[in-house]
Every structure is written in structure tokens, then in C-alpha cells.
Amino acid sequence: MSDVLVVYKKNFEAVHDASLDIITAELQRCSDEMGGLRIDIRARERVRRADFIGRDLVIVLGGDGTLTSISHNIDAATPVMGVNSHPRDDDPEGSFGFYMDSNVGTFADDVRQALTGKAIVNDLPRLQAIIDSTSGNRFTTDPAMNDLLIANTHQYAPSKYHLRRGDMKCEQQSSGLLFSTWLGQGAWLNHTISVDEHKKLRSKVDQEQKKTHYFVVARDVPHDQRTAMPWAWMDWTDAATTITSDMHRGYVVPDGWDEVHFNRGATITVNTEAPRLRLLTFRQTMAEKITS
Questions:
Q1: CA–CA separation, 110 vs 250, rounded Å?
Q2: pLDDT tens digits for 131-140?
Q3: Which of 49, 119, 208, 209 allows an S-S link to 280, with CB 3.0 to 4.6 Å?
Q4: If one looks up domain 128-271 in CATH, what number appears?
């Protein structure tokens, strides 16, 4: 690997600046050892899609929010490593960093593993939503590592839609549909349903399905619909979910970032066919991490 992009969190807190100085110095040492690396460093707020093209390695310095916010720009062929710039182990106010398997203390060894192809490669599925408008336009959202929300833009109004999955269909209203990857369940899903409901949903999961399936929950759906149409309330599935909107205006929000708006009559299809993400770890796989 010779072409490296570093994307860092810039919020004028000294701890993040200090971490950037440490990994920048370490990358320069790697460059001296390996005969020269091309190293570009960009603040998260200034990075553009073109900055990611043709990279051999993307290093994200920050927390999970930094990674999810820029991961939409990273294609399936580019490995990415997360470096926690403010670990919670060092400071209770720091970042948990679920996806950030490296930190400034381990970075020297970790980055050499990454640059020499010795890191663990986690092939992560990502969610996408395909929006077909009534005028015939089609738009595919950015891929989502964690979760994807479809809801009425006016949160005080119900989300009304016609729902289809395979041969099953229904008319439904809720406070929005939440979709989650296996790894993304801790971001929002387990705050949306009860502990018992979460255990029930997880009981359907086997190891191989984690690569192809996703969770879906209709938030605050009426209780009579939970028993009459359990598949439309809470499910673990690999089938595409399609809704036709009966909302005046709704939106799709991947990973809590960019909002993509649609109007009444639009059709939105959610699946796990987005480009996957090659996330590097160094001590255990992400699958092991979520069960440890």
C-alpha cells in the first residue's frame, strides 16, 4: 500500500489535535521505512468523494460518528481502519469507538499491519434505499453501515405507507420504519424495542445470515398490527422491503446523516445490496467483538 488518506475529526478540542500529531508522525516514519508513501490529510468537514478514489488505505481518526459520516464515500475495494482519537478508556467523556479498533497507543503496530496486508479484513454488508419518484426519477441513497430510517418529515404526524416484502403486503402506519445491519443494532435498534423484543429478534439469527440479512422494526406500530402482521412489525430478513408512501412528505436517513426527501406516491426499496465495506481490525473480528 502506498497511497494513504487520513480523515480526521476537527472540533478544536486539544485531544483530537494531539492524536493527529501522533499518527502523522508515525505515518512519516512508515514512509521513511517503506521507501515513500503518498499521505494526504483532510478534515472531515473538507473531504470530498474525489479524495477517496484510488486510495490503498483510508484512515479515519475520531469516533464512530466520524467513521459513519464519511464511510458513504468509501467503495467496496478500499480498506479502511478506524483510530479512536479520544478513547473512553482514557476519559469517561471520550468515544466508545465500536468500529475503531485502533487508538494512538496501538497505532504504530496497527498501521504497519494494515500497510503490509496483515490486518483482519471484515467484509461488512451495508444497507441502501432506492427511491422511485412518481415522475420516473430514481435515486439510490448513500450506503449505511448501521441503520436507515424511513419516516414522515413531520415527526408529530404518522408515517403512512403500503408495505411489501416478498408475497406479503399490508397498509400500515407507524412512527417510521427502522432498518439495521447486524453490527448496527447497538446504534439505535436496541433503544427502539424492549430488551425481551430484542432477544426475540436476535434468536432468529445464525452466523451466515449476518452477511446478508438485516433487522427491520416499525416504530410504535399499533398493537393489533403486531399480532396480525408480525412480519411487518419486527423482522430479520434478506428479502427486499418496499414501501409506497402515503405521506405528503417523507425522508430516508442513512446512518443519521444526510436526509433524502420524497413525496406521496414514491416507492422506496430497502436491501443489503449496497457496496460492502472493508473494515480493518487488528485483535479480533467485528463478529467476535459484538459477542465478547
A1: 43
A2: 999 999 999 9
A3: 119
A4: 2.60.200.30
